[in-house]
Amino acid sequence: MQAQERKQPLAGKPPVVNIKKPLNFTLTNGLKVMVVENHKLPKVTFNLTIDNPPFLEGNKKGVDELCSSLIGNGSTKISKEDFNEEVDFMGASISFSSNSAYASSLSKFSKRTLELLAYGALDPKFTQEELDKEKAKSIEGLRSQEKSVSSIANRVVNALAYGKNHPSGEFTTEETIASITLEDVINNYKKRFVPQNAYLAIVGDVKYNEIKPIIEELFGSWQKTTVNAISYPDPKNTEVTEINFIDVPNAVQSEISVVNTYNLKMNDKDFFPAVIANYILGGGFNSYLNMNLREAHGWTYGASTSIGAGKYVTSVRSSSAVKNNVTDSAVVEFIKEIKRIRTEKVTTEALENAKAGYIGRFVMKAEKPESVARYALNTETENLPADFYENYIKNVNAVTKEDVMAAANKYFLIDNSRIVIVGKGKEVLPGLEKLNIPIFYFDKYGNPVEKPVFKQ
């Protein structure tokens, strides 16, 4: 009996995603409100986001993080104990940060949940006792990461890629945390938790005409202040590919990161080609990097690439943790795969799989209230077309092989990338030196140092 030829099933029709449009209004203080009614389930979510530009904290780095930790620890309107007791009774969830607040609850408790969110966000109670606790926890966390190769890598990669005088490149230290006072935290809150850059997205079982007066009552007295946007010079990529090496003698693996910076906005015409190229290079399990370093060679548990997009300068980073004895070989394979996506057209199968994976994730998320809120917020803050998410699947499917290659050449700048390696120099440097790639040496905080000398 002759065996039948196996064929891949034909792709079905693209799924149709129905993303509801919000009803909008703006308070006199500048707070923009977006309400999406959805009465399928008796639930409601509230997402308050403050879209402030990045800012440099300098020798007070960590003040914004401490501000995040302290918001929600009580309010001048209600005690911390009573607040938590009410939240538990309603089965609600409420959380805060220095630039956001989130709450979800059954719709029958929506008014009280929103009141408690407003109390915590607009009338926080900052105390020296709570600040001391959070500072101690932060310093303890820094000490616990002192010898963590991955923590060192995350810190140094950003410091070198952006520069330590850029908001995305600075990092906390014990000294910066210790220098922060209660007045610093309060001033940070007053200066940046402001309504003119704020968006409140409400999704769920609420009625626009009923929730609108409640919002006006709770948030109408929120005072706006002046927020001066400070511009920072864009970081510069390297002139040629170079290795930035950080010696960590206790490292049992090497953390390798290939990174370069760029600008990519969500409303750019090559946004979709760029994210598909990223998915093919390192965004999915079957990506070039993962199939090479993990599946073909068995050097790592996983290799991946992350790509940023938004209003401000961002970066693309390909990374993996590999065995010490294959560090130099892994660097060769990173370079090979990044050059491959820049010089070879992807196969039809790889492109279609990437599109299917990307669309699948989008479809799974699209019905979730937090996603609906995020889409409404992105449309406003990223200056997206009103039909951006309605056309999302169509735009993904429109990406061609040529588009992928063009985006890879524009954003995966392997000839101007830093290959940041955190590892055990005594074991890995001899192999790296044979690659004929310039090597520069740095300490665990991104400061230039001389090449380490090892005892025989």
Automatic annotation (TrEMBL):
Pfam families: Peptidase_M16, Peptidase_M16_C. Residues 179-357 form the Peptidase M16 C-terminal domain. Residues 33-166 form the Peptidase M16 N-terminal domain. Gene3D superfamilies: Metalloenzyme, LuxS/M16 peptidase-like. It comes from the Bacteria. This is Predicted Zn-dependent peptidase. It comes from Flavobacterium glycines.
